[in-house]
Amino acid sequence: MIKLKTQINDMAFSLETGRLAKQSNGAILASLGETLVLVTAVTSGKTREGIDYLPLMVDYQEMFYGSGRIPGNYFRREIGRPSEKETLTSRLIDRPLRPRFPKGYAFDTQIIATVLSVDTEINPDVVAITAASAALCISDIPFGGPIAGVRVGRVEGKFIVNPTRTQLLNSDLNIIVAGTRNALVMVEGWAAVLSEQEILDAIFFGHESLTPLLDLQDELVEKAGKPKMTVLEPDSDLELTDKVSKAAREKMLAAIQIPSKVERNEE
Question: Which DSSP string do the residues of 183-214 spell out, in sequence order?
Answer without folding.
Answer: -EEEEEEEESS--HHHHHHHHHHHHHTTHHHH
